[in-house]
Amino acid sequence: DGGITQSPKYLFRKEGQNVTLSCEQNLNHDAMYWYRQDPGQGLRLIYYSQIVNDFQKGDIAEGYSVSREKKESFPLTVTSAQKNPTAFYLCASSTTGTGFVASYTFGSGTRLTVV
Amino acid sequence: GQQLNQSPQSMFIQEGEDVSMNCTSSSIFNTWLWYKQDPGEGPVLLIALYKAGELTSNGRLTAQFGITRKDSFLNISASIPSDVGIYFCAGQATWEYGNKLVFGAGTILRVKS
Fold first, then answer.
1. A82 closest CA partner among A7, A37, A15
2. Do B100 and A109 touch (CB under 8 A)?
3. What is the pLDDT of residues B49-60, one digit of tens each?
4. What is the Cα–Cα distance from B19 to B11, expressed in whole angstroms?
C-alpha cells in the first residue's frame, strides 16, 4: 500500500542537541512538506520541496534544516538554534500538477519533546 | 504567513446534534478543503471544494465554498462519538501560494459529558 511514513512516533531531545526526523513516501509524489503543529495554532509550514535536490523555506524555517537527496525521502533536522522545538511535526507529500490538492497526504506525525 | 480564521476554536457535541464551523480569509482562494485529525495522527481529507458556490456532501458532512471565494463552512449532521477530533480548513491559491496549502487553526470537537 502506498503511503507516507514518519519515524519515530515519539522523540525526546536534550537541550542543545540536534535531532533528525524521518519522512519517507512511496506515493511517487514530487513534492514534500514539513509542518509544525502547536495547540491552537494550526499547521505552520517549515520547509517544502518540489523536486529532488531543491527545497524552499516556509513560514517558520529558522532553527530547522532539510535535505532532499532522494524523491522518497525528506528528513527534517531540528537544530539547537530552534528556541522552542517541543511540538508535533507533520510531513506531507503531493503531486505538483493541476489537482495536486486531492493528492495531498499526511504522515502520522512525530511528537518531539525537549527534556 | 497567511493563516485562515477558523471558528469556533472548540465546541462540545452531544450525540445526535448538528455541528457547524466556518473559515474566513481576507484573500481569495480557488480551492477550499476540510480535514479531520484524530489524536496523534495526521489530518485526513474529508471534502474538497473547487468552485465558488459549490455545495458538497460526504455522508453526514456537508461543506460549501463561499460565493466571495473568501470563506467556507462545514456542517456535520447527527453527530456521533467518533466525530471528536480537530477539524481544519485549508485553502489553496496558486497565484499566491503555488502548490502550498494555507491552514486554519482548527476547531476542536469534544464530547459533552
1. A15
2. no
3. 999 999 999 999
4. 9
Residue type, B59: G
Q: Tell whether A98 is within 8 A of chain B (Cβ).
A: no
Question: What's the mean pLDDT in A67-80?
Answer: 97
Beta carbons of A45 and B100 less than 8 Å apart: yes
- For residues B34 and B88, give the distance between their C-alpha atoms in angstroms, rounded to a whole number: 6
DSSP B41-102: S--EEEEEE-STT-EEEETTEEEEE-TTSSEEEEEE-S--GGG-EEEEEEEE-HHHHTT--E
Q: Could you report the per-residue pLDDT of B61-90, keeping only the tens digit for each?
A: 999 999 999 999 999 999 999 999 999 999
Record: contact A41-B105, CB cut-off 8 A: yes
